[in-house]
From TrEMBL:
Coiled coil: none annotated. Residues 1-22 form the signal peptide. This is DUF1471 domain-containing protein. It comes from Silvania hatchlandensis. Gene3D superfamilies: Flavin-binding protein dodecin (3.30.1660.10). It holds the Pfam family YdgH_BhsA-like. Keywords: Signal.
């Protein structure tokens, strides 16, 4: 009986982790504000929150972020 409960608990926890997602996105623009606006728009289309993971600036800004639901 204990092994059945353990199996059910493990199965339930594994389903929770598959229910969430993380997606990496990137944007290029002329300013930090415009690049972040592009990231925010992508997140809004997906119905997700975003966290900026990197931003590089030479002549243009290249920004990457992770979208999470």
């Amino acid at each position: 009986m204990k092994s059945i409960k353990t199996f059910v608990a493990v199965a339930a926890l594994s389903l929770i982790s598959f229910g969430s997602f993380a997606q990496s996105v990137s944007a290029t623009a002329s300013t930090l504000d415009r690049a972040e606006a592009k990231i925010a728009a992508q997140a809004a289309r997906e119905g997700a929150a975003y966290k900026i993971t990197s931003a590089q600036f030479d002549n243009r800004v290249h920004m990457t972020a992770e979208l999470t639901k």
